[in-house]
Structure formats: structure tokens, C-alpha cells
TrEMBL record:
Name of this chain's protein: 1,4-dihydroxy-2-naphthoate octaprenyltransferase
Recorded topology in the membrane: Multi-pass membrane protein
Keyword annotations: Cell membrane, Membrane, Menaquinone biosynthesis, Transferase, Transmembrane, Transmembrane helix
Assigned EC number: 2.5.1.74
Pathway the protein takes part in: Quinol/quinone metabolism; menaquinone biosynthesis; menaquinol from 1,4-dihydroxy-2-naphthoate: step 1/2
InterPro entries: MenA, UbiA_prenyltransferase, UbiA_sf, UBIAD1
Organism from which the protein derives: Flavobacterium limi
Family per record: Belongs to the MenA family. Type 1 subfamily.
Amino acid sequence: MKHWIEAARLRTLPLSVSGIIVGSIYALSNPTETVNTPTEVFSWKVFGFALLTTLGLQVLSNFANDYGDGIKGTDNADRVGPKRAIQSGVITPQAMKKAIITTSVLTLLSAIILIYFAFGQSNFAYSIFFLLLGVAAIASAIRYTVGNSAYGYKGFGDVFVFIFFGLVSTLGVNFLHTKEIDPLLILPAVSIGLLSVGVLNLNNMRDEESDRNSGKNTIVVQIGGAKAKIYHFSLIITSMLLVIIFAALSDYRFDQYLFLLAYIPLTKHLITVYKNQNPKLLDPELKKLALSTFLLSALLTICMISLISDIIVNLFLGGR
């Protein structure tokens, strides 16, 4: 069990639920034009199964990454950071393959239940669309490093992370609650997507040498470490600016800018990356950036709801 927990890479899980939290609480704090009260929009069942589905997708991605890099030999003695399960031999490729299949089935089942709670027996077209989206997310999580045409080896991993852990996670769960798309929510959705890409880019900066030797052609391998730093700064800084723009367009009061506290660890992270001369020493920054992203999302959701009394009334007395 210890080895399976390590293979699931728990430190990545807070990052994966950031979009779910923001998208759901935005639905709670911003009733649609057709509904008058937040509790008519927000559903605990949708929120819970959205979290479960996203966590399943993240664990699946981690298992598939371990399997794909393990059997390809990308995870070798040159790799920096915690040893992977297949690399160290504590889990066999056959066992990991079974775990990938099992996790895929459970994640798909969770997605189906989520879709049912969101749309019921109506909105058949929406149900089919989100079902296909769920299948695409599962397939993409596996194909990142698994197979001869794994897109993670061609530098497209950043695109997958941005789309599914940024746009789909935030906008998708909000739509499951509201059945509408709020253009303003695109700003925090893009922000979370960029921060998620930042975590992946940091991972690829750390592994640049071993990835190049193994033929894993990530964006960092393609552009080099120096430009990867510039790319990293642009991801994080753009993300921070987008959230401020979102707050300004939402007419936030002064006290609703509490989320700026999360900019402290993000700024410290940028300074660390700027000063770094040995990419192999960036491993601790992965966890810090992931947790900083979660902190930003958590503080932003608090800022979305004006009064503590509103939270109590809407969530505990009127929520379903």
C-alpha cells in the first residue's frame, strides 16, 4: 500500500482540484440570470463527484506516467527527484498496467455519476458531450507517456495540462452547476491552467538532461533551460495578473483582495527559479508551486463570497 500511495504522488493532488473549487464556488456566489438564489445553482453532489473524478484523473495520469516512462527507460539513474515505482522495481509493469485500467474504469464511473447528478434525464446533448469529454480526458492522461505516439514525448504535455486542469476543470464544473458559461470565469480558469503548466514545466526543467538523453522531447528540451526560465516566468506572472484583472472586473472591495497573500509564496518561487543555476535542485519547488496554486484558489473562493453569514446560510441551511 505504501508503494501505491507513493506512485499516486499525493503532492500533485491539491493542484488538480484547484479549478474544481474555483468553478464551483463561483457558481455558488454568482447566481445565473434564470435563478435567484445561489442554492438553486450549487449542488453538493456535483461538487463532490467533480472532486472525485478530477482526483481519479490525476492519479491515473501519475500511474500512466510512471508506467510509460518506466518501460521506455526514461526513468533511469540520471533522473532527479523521488524514484518512480517501476523504476525502483517495487511495482511491476504488469501490476501498474492493471492499476491504470482499474483507475480508468473507476474514474469513468465517477464521471458518469457526476453527469447524471448535473443533468438528470434531461439535457441529453450536454450529457453526451461531457461523457465524451470525460473519455477524452482519460485517454489523454494515459497517452501522455504511454505508447509509441505518446504526446508528452513530443512537447504537447503543456497543452493537455492547460486544457484539462485549467479550462475544463474550472469552466466545466461551473457549467455542470449553472448550465451556462460565464465569460468572466475564463480569467481564473486560464490562470489556474497556466500555474498547472508551470508545475509541469518545472518538472521538465528539473529533468531536462535525462529527458534529452532518453528522447523525451519536452518543450524544455526543445527550447533549452535558459528560455524555459523565461517561459516559466511568463506562465506565473501572467497567471497572477489575470486573477487581479478578474477581481477588478468583478468589482471586488478592498477586503476581497485577500487572495494576494498567495502571491507571496509565488513571488518567492520566482526568485528561487531566477537564482537557480542547477535545475536538478528545483525538485522541492514543484510541491511549493502546487500548494501555492491551491492556496490561491482557496483564498480566491473565500473572496468570492462576501459575508461569513452568507456561507453558513447558503451551504449549510439551503445547499443540497
